[in-house]
Amino acid sequence: MFRIKEILKEKGLTQLELASMLGVSPQYISGVIREVVSVSVSALGRIAAALNVPVASLFSDYTQTTDSLVCPSCGARLKLVVE
Q1: What is the pTM of this model?
Q2: Residue 61: is its pLDDT beyond 90?
């Protein structure tokens, strides 16, 4: 369900480093990755922020689209159209 381990690998980070960034135990991060501990939406938000990724990208069914982007000023999703 979660892609946290994959994202850590992509970013060259370890579970220990993520745990340190979040101020939690490495065992907690391991449990989240193995899906043996419950994780709150708030905790997922903190994990995503620490990894500098959208929360949705933490889930295995996440697909990134290239036909839109988010305006950094107002946060609106803008659809890209090729003419």
Answers
A1: 0.72
A2: no
